[in-house]
Amino acid sequence: MTATSWFKTPSGARSLLVLLIAPFLTLPAVAQTQKPIYPTLPYNFALFPTATGAFGDFNGDGRIDEATPNGINAMGLRLNNGPASSPTLTSIPLSCSPQFVLATDLNNDNKIDLAFSCSGAYVGVMLGNGDGTFQTASYYPVPSSALSGITAVDLNGDGYLDIAVVADTVNVGVLLNQGVGKPGSLSSPKLYPAPSGVSLSTINAGDFNGDGKQDIIAGYTQIAIYYGNGDGTLNTPQLTTASTGTAFVVGDFNRDGLTDVAYLGPNPQTPTSSLQVLLGDSSGTLTNGSSLALDPTVKYLYIVPFQNTNASNITNLALIGNVTTIALNDGAGGLTLGESYGVSNFAIPETADNGITNLYFQSNVESIVLAGNGNGTFQGPRATLLGSNYQAVADLNADGLTDVLSTDESGNLIVALGRGDGSFTVVSRTQVSPNPFAGPTTVGDFNGDGKEDVLFFPGVTPSGNAQVEFLAGNGNGTFQPIVNELQIPVPGVGATVVGDFNGDGNLDIVYTTPSSRAYPYETLYYLAGNGAGNFAAPVELAQQIPNSLVSPILIADLNGDGILDIIWDNSTLLGNGDGTFNRQPLSIAGNAISLSDLNGDGKPDLVVYNNGPTGVSLYAGNGDGTFQTTPFYTPDLTGTFPYGASPLASIGDVNADGHPDLLLQSFPYGQPGVLAVFLGDGTGNFVLENTYPLISTGFSMLARLNAQAPSLPGDHTLDYVYTAGGATISLLNQLNPAPTAPAPLPSKTTLAASSTSAAPGQQLTLTATVTGASPTGTVSFITNGKALGTAAITNGTAALATSFAAAGTYPVIANYPGDANNTPSSSNAVSIFVAPVNSTTTLSVSAGSAGTNQQLTFTASVTGLNPTGKVTFASSTATLGTTSLINGVATLPFAFTATGSFAVTATYAGDVANLGSASTPVTVTVAAPDYTITASPSSATIKAGQSATTTLTVTPVGGYTGTVKFSCGTLPTGVGCTFAPSSVTPSSGAATSTLTITTTAPTTAFLRRLSVPLQGVAWASLLFLAFSPRRTRGLNRRFARAMLFTLLLAAGLFTFSGCSSSSPSNPVTNPGTPAGAQTITVTTADSSGNLSHAINFQVTVQ
User: Fold this and answer.
1) What is the DSSP letter of 490?
2) What is the DSSP string of 799-840?
3) Which residue intervals define the domain Bacterial Ig-like in the entry (predicted)?
4) Of 118, 144, 867, 956, which is least surrounded by CB within 10 A?
5) At 1019, which helix (H) or strand (E)?
6) How far is residue 1099's CA from residue 464's CA, in Å, rounded to a whole number?
């Protein structure tokens, strides 16, 4: 049996190994060792950290004391007498039951006071005397039914701390300190409601917007900030983006002077999956800071801020759940996950005498100390987060160290290699099942190549069959893809063991099916292996005896025939060597938990748990498959293990005396447990070496974790490994030399590009994936010896956005320089082909026609990938010119000197990013300078004596810029012709002039018509003067006589001419413009005298 095989079977194979090597061991027995075999954390009897208590130096002796609620109507005090001494306990009677306690100085006398929320919705205050005693409590009612969280903060800037408390989960109550007049006395509370639908519990304070005024922050279902006004009042609360507020702390994480928030998410109803930071901002709205993904199986509950030393101003965070994980701060608010440790429960940070911060964890009635190293690491059992309690151990990479396999809730197979110092490093997470609740794994050489393989049981198919998947090992901790998948008609797979039960040299499997409502009792099955990773159909071996206590599957050669036998369910199944078994009752009451030769007679003995006062008993094997019915040893477990939970047993030599020792681990699943180490003398006698508290209990076994220990099978100082809430925790045997720093593990870097072809200047993303021992640092990307850039590794990948300026083929390599745990590695080259893109050129011209020497503007627009370069403009006969592109546009001013029709094209030459292109031709017509003339309207109809107008439009042709004068030809009788203006210059386009044609009306009867009314006027005037009153006549006789004379003269003249014209024989004096159509010819002449045009305008006179 190889070292690897020793690890693959936690019971039977180990037992056989002990039987084989025990007679050859000559090391003397050691009943006791001077120091514990496994490390223990120091106790501090003075402190008992609780989430509701308060801590401070109450008596001025320099030690941290504690005040906690002490039952009904009492406050408990623990005065610190040093870590090795029990504290002085005092109980102070109160008028209400305290709930949350706060230690602070409320009256500015440099002595610690106590403020507390109390039953009945009171805030209590006890002023400290500085000697460990306190004055009688004062009580301040808050109008609510209950109070919870409490904090102290100076809200009005008077230098005295005020009190803020959560009331009824829906209000924040503020009680201002009365300050100088009555220091330490509180004013009546003022309530500030929470946002609608938000419940509050925890409360804290800080300056989140940097205005120098203290603010209040409170949360439970969400986190809300009440910004302070600086006068003791608060503004309406603002909700942050935090999705939950069940666990949050405040601090200046990026050292910008503003208070920030760190909280666990996503919400109270689901497992914690991230650590989020919200950064304070002067805008009054918190901004998103660092975010860390967390293992949801650890279920973190608390955040504890701490500085590494008393001289540091960088705040790290201890995340406490099933284990404790350190989140390291880079000083700018950037967080990374540090080490995890096998300690749990509520903790507080305190600085030791050496200035280094330790963490004190609650335990029983004292605390255990996780001593700090001053650099963010601590002295405690290392924990590796694997995400599941389904774990198996084996030497997966043949380095002689124990490695761990696990499956998480996402169906990933996780490989964590032992590093030789008690730690494990996750080197791969491979998706092997879509089932979110993947089952156990089993390790063994199932294909006979000498390398450890994996059988994975991912769950049940929709048809109800369980699955068995085979992954062949490569011997280096990696595995090949699944090639064999077997479906077995059982509702699932529970416990498994591996061995050759039919003597064919191939490993077989014996497994149980878990009980369920459909299958109330477990069943034992056998799968025969074929040596190639495949298995025959399952064979049922036994069913659980109704109401019996099912034991683990134990295997060993019980009757000395060289064939493996089985103990299960209070029964012995003696193997026949062909995969069949004979079942017989065990005849020993209790639950068999382990098999090994414990009394040195070469026969396997049985460890049984009977759930009674005696707990565990050891029964000697008879060598024929039966056991003595009287135990030869019963360990004293008084006060060690709780009844009702069968312990786990491991057997091996841990004290280097050559004799098997017995290690019993209590198994109250998911609760703190105890490991008891019993040292054997080889004859069946044992003595308790020590008991070791465990934070939680799950799978456990002895292992070789320290590279400085002797190689197997010669390692007689075995280490211990156990699981707790998704983590694997190591206990190193202190009899071995101290482990050295592990050598780096080989890393592997692979490179992928978002595209292997691109245009010049086109951005693409290069992604390097680095595998190894949780690699950190940066990756550099190089092509042809030129650095493209570097990128930081986040969760195993580094991404760089880059581009290539010129066309060509670029072989890119990603180089990882390694770190403390990983060797350097480089990827294979990935070739990026960069080719110019197609361009498109379009051409336009300012005018489609022009005259000779008239300037035109040609505009070429080129599209592509930011095109640059030159564009050439050409006609079919000549090159017009070449200009450069500006923002994708090239323009060319040009004038043709000859007349004709010209087809012009624009040709783009291209650049490193763009191929060349040519536009479609644009035709330009070039003519000699001239003009055209039009009239609108071209005709008019009028009566004699009326006038007609028309608009004359002169349009330049061929770049004409001269002056055009207008004139009319020979005009008909009585017709006149005028132009306004008389000339135009159409240099900027068409110009107009208005032509007016006037006609003459005949005048024959004009005077006769006027004489009649004038005669009447004259006689009327004469009569008026004759009969007007005297007074009126006297006003102005001279004026009257003049007017009368004028009227009489006019009347006479018109009468005469009227009488003369009445004769029909008199001729017409002026006949006017003849009736009919009259053609008016308008002539235009260029001022130079070279060009003239004519146009007709027809006037019809009625």
Assistant:
1) S
2) EEEE--SSSEEEEEEEEE--BTTB--EEPPPEEEEE-PBP-E
3) 752-834, 844-927
4) 144
5) helix 1006-1027
6) 107
What is the bridge-based pairing of β-strands 412-418 and 825-826?
A: unpaired
pLDDT, one tens digit per residue, over 741-787 is 888 988 999 999 999 999 888 899 999 999 888 788 999 999 999 99
Task: Report DSSP state, residue 8.
Answer: H
Nearby residues of 217 by Cβ (< 8 Å), 6 or more positions away: 203, 204, 205, 206, 208, 223, 224, 225, 226, 248, 250, 261
Tell me which of 102-106, 581-585, 628-632, 719-723 is least confident. 719-723
Question: Which positions ≥6 away from 1076 have C-beta within 8 Å?
Answer: 1100, 1101
Q: CATH 2.40.50.140: does it fit domain 52-239?
A: no
First and final C-alpha spacing in the chain: 136
With residues binned 3-state (H G I as helix, E B as strand, rest as coil), the percentages for the chain, rounded to 5, are 5, 45, 50
Residue found under tokens 């198996």:
392
Two tokens, residue 836: 């110019």
Which of 424, 436, 441, 456 has its CA nearest to residue 389? 441
Cα–Cα distance measured from residue 435 to residue 460, given in angstroms and rounded to the nearest whole number: 8
For 233, the token pair is: 């009042």
Residue 702 in 3-state DSSP?
strand
Q: Which residues pair with 349 in a beta bridge?
A: 359
- Say which CATH class 748-834 falls into: mainly beta
Q: Name which of 629, 664, 660 is nearest 647 in CA terms.
A: 664
Residue that the structure tokens 């801020």 belong to? 305
Q: Hey, what are 482's tokens? A: 């699944």
Helix 1006-1027 × helix 1037-1061 angle, to 10°: 150
pTM of the model: 0.71
Number of alpha carbons in the 13 Å side-chain half-sphere of residue 185? 6
Q: Name the fold adopted by 930-1000+1075-1101.
A: Immunoglobulin-like (2.60.40)
Q: What is the mean pLDDT of residues 6-14?
A: 39
Q: Smallest Cα–Cα separation from 318: which of 290, 347, 342?
A: 347
Complete DSSP assignment for 95-135:
SS-EEEEEEE-SSSSSS-EEEEEETTTEEEEE-B-SSS-BP
**Cis amide bond preceding 28, omega within 30:** no
Q: Which CATH homologous superfamily contains domain 3-39+384-731?
A: YVTN repeat-like/Quinoprotein amine dehydrogenase (2.130.10.10)
Are the CB atoms for 955 and 990 separated by under 8 Å?
yes
The identity of residue 698, as a single letter, is: G
DSSP state letter for 367: E
Determine the Cα–Cα distance for residues 241 and 690; give it in Å rounded to an integer: 50
Cβ pair 922, 939 in contact under 8 A? no
Q: Where are the domains of the chain?
A: 3-39+384-731, 52-239, 748-834, 840-926, 930-1000+1075-1101, 1006-1061
| pLDDT single digits (tens) 580-614 | 999 999 989 888 999 999 999 999 999 998 876 66
Phi, psi angle pair for 990, to nearest 5°: -60, 145
> What is the spatial distance between Cα 1006 and Cα 387, in angstroms, rounded to a whole number?
124
Same fold, 748-834 and 930-1000+1075-1101: yes
**Amino acid letter, residue 646:** S
Cα distances (Å, whole numbers) of residue 1079 to 811, 966, 999, 1099:
88, 16, 13, 6
Instruction: Check pLDDT > 80 for residue 1055.
Output: no
Which secondary structure element, helix H or strand E, spans residue 341, and what is its range?
strand 335-341
Strand (E) or helix (H) holding 1010: helix 1006-1027
Domain 840-926: give its CATH code: 2.60.40.10
Split at pLDDT 50, 70, 90, the class of 806 is: confident
The structure tokens listed for 440 are: 């156990």
Paired tokens of 47: 């402190």
Q: Residue 32 CA to chain centroid, in angstroms?
A: 54
Q: Is residue 661 within 8 Å of 651, Cβ to Cβ? A: yes
